Predict the structure.
Amino acid sequence: MAFDIEMIKKVYANMAGRVDKARELVGRPLTLSEKILYSHLWEGTPSQAFTRGKDYVDFAPDRVACQDATAQMALLQFMHAGKDKVAVPTTVHCDHLIQAKIDAKTDLKRAKEQSNEVFDFLSSISNKYGIGFWKPGAGIIHQVVLENYAFPGGMMIGTDSHTVNAGGLGMVAIGVGGADAVDVMSGMAWELKFPKLIGVKLTGKLSGWTAPKDVILKVAGILTVKGGTGAIIEYFGEGARAMSCTGKGTICNMGAEVGATTSTFGYDESMDRYLRATNRADVADEAAKMADYLTADKEVYESPEKYFDQVIEINLSELEPHLNGPFTPDLATPISKMREEATKNDWPLNVQVGLIGSCTNSSYEDISRSVSIAQQAADKKLKPKAKFTITPGSEQVRYTIERDGFIDTFDKIGATVFANACGPCIGMWDREGAEKEERNTIVHSFNRNFSKRADGNPNTLAFVGSPELVTALAIAGDLGFNPLTDKLINEEGEEVMLDEPTGHELPPKGFAVDDPGYQAPAEDGSKVQVKVSPESERLQLLAPFDPWNGDNIMGAKLLIKAFGKCTTDHISMAGPWLRFRGHLDNISNNMLIGAVNAFNMKTNLVKNQLTGEYDAVPAVQRAYKAAGIPTVVVGDHNYGEGSSREHAAMEPRHLGVKVVIVKSFARIHETNLKKQGMLALTFANEADYDKIQENDTFNFTDLKEFAPDRQITIEVVHDDGSKDTIIANHSYNESQIGWFVAGSALNLIAAASRGEEVKA
């Protein structure tokens, strides 16, 4: 039986009436995305039609999920909300703090020893506030959610950008910062700009070496890393219906890499099969009654150009396996062109490591198709040229593939099975030799491949592909190897070819697991004590941020002008820094250390205008904070893309940065900045980015008139006394300006819980 089945029944009970009313208000057939959005309005039954890409709308998500790295800060904030229990079903998943090094058993034991304090904190605070807790080793948040909590037609938010994975089961699932999660956990409305809609029509059918992963790799090449910003991507067509539920999840998962708000698929038989295979026949039975409401109206898919803002069509029968990268997930190359591209760009052809699994590709189907390649290698006497690792997505998947002999098969080719955790995908990989920073190539089935992402080495070129393609490339040890056409020489000197991969959508014997790793919360958590030591290096209770003083910000100094791509990995690195995710002051020592300074093209080296000396970014910012001087960060396009980590907003806020001015923001990061009381602005004229000089001072001369749709004037004073006047845009509405005035959104929630009114 499913978790929260009564909640799911209630969602379905309300859905038909709300969707019917929305269809009447909008005056046309509805997409699936619109049906889910309109059936989850905070007001309940819709009373107006909303304009895509313009109207801010209050929603009521069904549930919240948090992973351990972000849950720490989210729950530390929730402690200030004044609530006895979370208002909606909420879970915490311990998956980010387990470093991959030796093998699953050894690495998990070490993680429990090193992060015991954090795990105990998360366990106790979950117990206190009615939150389901998934222990270290239980699995990666998104795989566990798909197996246990996702349901067709539902809406959820999660404190991880790949929450969107649940779209594979027909949800609208959206990645957010911790402050957004606190809103929903506190029983408040959650605000989102009503998304635009991108339709992707899938014709034909996948076959041979082509996998669901290749669909999103192709889409990423079309849309680029920011092409989906502010939009939901809805997949449909015969190709979508022919695809497995977990394959759909893979596609939705990597929708985060094109900036999409989320991605989703209409309910179909593959979802029904998956729900029943994961012991949720009760959900499948309820969904079957609502089938017409869990997909778009038929007119939409018949004439998609009338109902979507953009339509992309992909013929799966003609789609070729892709590899995307290096350094960005949208550089898409068909495998038949990879040798040519690698040679042209001087990418090392020698593949050193192949890694499969992670939240993106760790389903039973993924592993079964990969193991079919591994078995061929053993049978055909092919010794893998590269190291090979597997990261299962959950204990249920790991237990099942071990029962079915897959791990034994992987052992034959010398593979290493890591813990059921994020591991190398998020930089939690203690890779031998990475500290030498040698230029090298790896291939993986993860979702991101930014510089330093996997192993901390800026010279590691990471390429993203399907698990079966990654397995083949690890065996060949050659980035340019095309398994569709190329032969390999085995240990006996014979030429052999790899056959097409085969696999099972679901385990023929069913899923099995001894201990899934779940801890239910106490019925009454009032007596549960949450302890945080004042001496802890890992955890720190939060103090509220100061409200705005009502004055214009004057005399602000430039901290850094970031050049080019500046993701949340650049602003607040993961890897070894994950250990400080619950201690705001300590983790602030990684603030912007990965950003490239536009004035010297170096990282973590900026000018201190007070001394004229160059130092690390956090050190310079702490000097400004000590002197009571406000500061400004300037950035390029899609600033803050990548992870949902709100530390990338909280660290600058904590250290005294007042304003971030960029050419454009990634959606989640812009919201995170707003939630923490920061001023997030964009250049009205992008060319003004070039006017910013190293010794600049900024005066925000009309901030007192801060209002929706009203531009802000900035006087930029240069070192020689000359000035430029720059106009900045913003996307704040009245309630978001309230966050700025109060000092943060959390300050407003806490005040409301006390019955107070926050004033500037």
